C-alpha cells in the first residue's frame, strides 16, 4: 500500500471493538469518532461539555455514547475512568486526542499549567487508569495526538514545569506536545513485554479546527488569510490518528503525520520526531514526575526491563 494514498477506505471493519476518543465533540476528535463508528466500532465520546457531546453523538451514525471527562481535573479523570471501567470490561482503542493550544497562562483545578496539565498530564493519568482494560485485548492501542509544535521552543522544563517564573504560550504548548511523544515512546517500551497493547503517536499537520482560537491576535488575522492555502480540513487531519489506530502494519512507538511538504497536509505516512523526543533519560524522568504529579501509577509489572 502506498504511504501517500492511505484513506479512511483502508480502515478495516471495527465491529466488536471499543474506542474511547477524548475531545470528540468537535474537530479532529469528532471526525475520528465518526469514522470509527461508521466502520462499526462502539465509540465513547469522552468530553468536557456533555451537552455538546450529546449534540455531536446525534450527528454520528452508529453505536456512540458520551462520557463526561474534564482533563483539567484529576477528580474528573478518576471518575470518568471508573465509569468507563464499569461500562467497558475491554477497551480496544484509547485515543488521546483532546488538547488546548496557545492559551493565556492559566492553571488546572490541580494547579498545573493548563497546556501541560491538559495535553500531557491529563492523558497520562487517564491512560494509567484505563490500561488494565486494554492490556488483555489483542491488537489494543493507545494513540496520543502530538503536533509539529513539539519542535518549536520545545523542551521539558523540569526546573519550572508549570511556567511559574515566566510564561510563553508557544513554549508551553511545545513542551506539552513534546511530552506527548516522550510519553508514547516510554509507554511503548514498558508495553513491549506484554505483547498485546501498543502505543503510537500521530499529528494532524495544520488543520482548520477550533484549536487555534487562543492564538495571539497578531497571528489570527494572517492565519485567516492564508488558512485555505496551508491547512486541511478535519477529515484529512484525522487520518494520521486513524491510521495509527487501525492500520495492521503499524508498530508500537511509531509516529504518523501528513505526507506533504513540511508535514503540513496530505495523506498519512510514517514520520520522524525530533531528536529531543528520543532522549531516553528525559523520557524516564518525565514518567516519574508525571506519576508523582498525578498520583497515578501504571499497572504492576509495567516497568522497563
From TrEMBL:
Alphabetical list of SUPFAM superfamilies matching this protein: NAD(P)-binding Rossmann-fold domains
Keyword check for Oxidoreductase: yes
InterPro entries associated with the record: NAD(P)-bd_dom_sf, SDR_fam
Pfam families hit by this protein: adh_short (PF00106)
Family to which this protein belongs: Belongs to the short-chain dehydrogenases/reductases (SDR) family.
NCBIfam families on file: PRK05854.1 (NF004513), PRK06197.1 (NF004846)
Protein name as catalogued: Short-chain dehydrogenase
Source organism per UniProt: Mycolicibacterium arabiense
Amino acid at each position: 500500500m502506498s504511504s501517500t494514498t492511505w484513506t479512511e477506505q483502508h480502515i478495516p471493519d471495527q465491529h466488536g471493538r471499543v474506542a474511547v476518543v477524548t475531545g470528540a465533540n468537535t474537530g479532529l476528535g469528532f471526525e475520528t469518532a465518526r469514522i470509527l463508528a461508521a466502520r462499526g466500532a462502539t465509540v465513547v465520546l469522552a468530553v468536557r461539555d456533555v451537552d455538546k457531546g450529546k449534540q455531536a453523538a446525534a450527528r454520528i451514525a452508529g453505536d456512540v455514547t458520551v462520557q463526561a471527562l474534564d482533563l483539567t481535573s484529576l477528580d474528573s479523570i478518576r471518575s470518568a475512568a471508573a465509569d468507563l471501567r464499569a461500562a467497558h470490561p475491554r477497551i480496544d482503542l484509547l485515543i488521546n486526542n483532546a488538547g488546548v493550544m496557545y492559551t493565556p497562562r492559566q492553571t488546572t483545578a490541580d494547579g498545573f499549567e493548563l497546556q501541560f496539565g491538559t495535553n500531557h498530564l491529563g492523558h497520562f493519568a487517564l491512560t494509567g487508569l484505563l490500561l488494565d482494560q486494554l492490556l488483555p485485548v489483542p491488537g489494543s492501542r493507545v494513540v496520543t495526538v502530538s503536533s509539529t509544535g513539539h519542535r518549536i521552543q520545545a523542551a521539558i522544563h523540569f526546573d519550572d514545569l508549570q511556567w511559574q517564573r515566566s510564561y510563553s504560550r508557544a513554549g508551553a504548548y511545545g513542551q506539552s506536545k513534546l511530552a506527548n511523544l516522550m510519553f508514547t515512546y516510554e509507554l511503548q517500551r514498558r508495553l513491549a513485554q506484554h505483547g498485546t497493547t501498543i502505543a503510537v503517536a500521530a499529528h494532524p499537520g495544520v488543520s482548520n479546527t477550533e484549536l487555534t482560537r487562543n492564538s495571539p491576535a497578531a497571528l489570527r488575522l494572517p492565519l485567516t488569510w492564508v488558512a485555505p492555502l496551508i491547512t486541511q480540513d478535519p477529515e484529512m487531519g484525522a487520518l494520521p490518528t486513524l491510521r495509527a489506530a487501525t492500520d495492521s502494519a503499524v508498530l508500537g512507538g511509531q509516529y504518523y503525520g501528513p505526507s506533504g511538504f513540511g508535514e503540513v497536509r496530505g495523506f498519512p505516512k510514517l514520520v520522524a520526531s525530533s531528536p529531543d523526543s528520543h532522549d531516553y533519560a528525559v523520557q524516564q524522568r518525565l514518567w516519574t514526575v508525571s506519576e508523582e504529579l498525578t498520583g497515578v501509577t501504571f499497572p504492576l509489572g509495567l516497568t522497563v526491563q
